[in-house]
Every structure is written in C-alpha cells, then in structure tokens.
Amino acid sequence: MSEHPASSAMPSGPFDPAGIVWSRVSPRLATARLLSAGIALAVVVVVAGVLLVVVDHWWPWVLVALVVIDAVWTAVVVPRQVRAIGYAERDDDLLIRKGILFRTLVVVPYGRMQYVDVQAGPLARRMRIAQIQLHTASASTDATIDGLEPAEAERLRDRLASRGEARLAGL
Predict the structure, then answer these.
(1) CA distance 46 to 138
(2) Cβ(87)–Cβ(94) under 8 Å?
(3) 20 to 30 A from 52, CA-CA: which of 36, 43, 124, 128?
C-alpha cells in the first residue's frame, strides 16, 4: 500500500479535500481487471474467428477491428482507473474516491455503518487482493474499496467495524 499526500497547496475542488493523505489500492487490481477483460475479449475473438471461417463476407472483420479497439482502450484506461482509486480514514468518516472522467467522492460516516463485508472471488484470491463493501443505512451508498491487500482489508474491516460500533453506541 503506497500513499501520497494530496496537494495541500492546490486542492482539486470537492474531490481532493486539503490535508488528506490518500491510501492507494494494490496495482494487482489492474492486472485482475485486465485478465477479466482479456477473457471476455478472447471469447469474442473465437466467435469472430469461427465467423471468418464459416461466412465468406467482410463484416466479421468489423468485429475483429472492434475487439482490437476495445483491447487497446481497456489496456490504456484500466491502469489509470486503478490509480485513481483512493481512500482516507478521518476521525468521523471514511472517504472513498474513484474515477478519471466521471469522478466520485463518497463520504461514509462511521456512525451510519451497519456492517462491513470483505469479499474475494477466485481471481482476486489468486491475485492476492480483496474488496471491502460498507453497508450503511442508505441502500444507494456505493461504498466499496476494491483491490486491497488481504492484510489491509482485514485491518480496515476490523477498524471500520469498531469505529462504527463506537459511533453507534454514542447515539
């Protein structure tokens, strides 16, 4: 887990509050996302290959071109998306930011947390990453942090759960 201080001299509006030190997720998340996309694209390539053999027409080549464009786009965008994910623990809440073009900053007050899930599918376990999902009183809250080291996910789960219980008990 690497950290970098947010620019305190020039905060970037509502998405970069001054004085916040953002924690980053594992770069292995980019590899996992690229592998998932590669598997999906491989299926499309197989279908396109079958169509090229079976159909003597030009349109399967359009499918091949779209797959190549999608593969290049994914290879460029996914690592940038992963680098844009960050979280910061403050005294009363947790900040989670995501996105490059469409940026999101979620602020989750500890007192609103009901429970915290840690999840890891087969690929995530193989890549040694996990996801934390925060469940709050609001069903629409998108409070997930994907790509955490397992030890960091465990530490964060325990810390958030205890902070949530302490804040809830204080009500």
Answers:
(1) 43
(2) yes
(3) 36
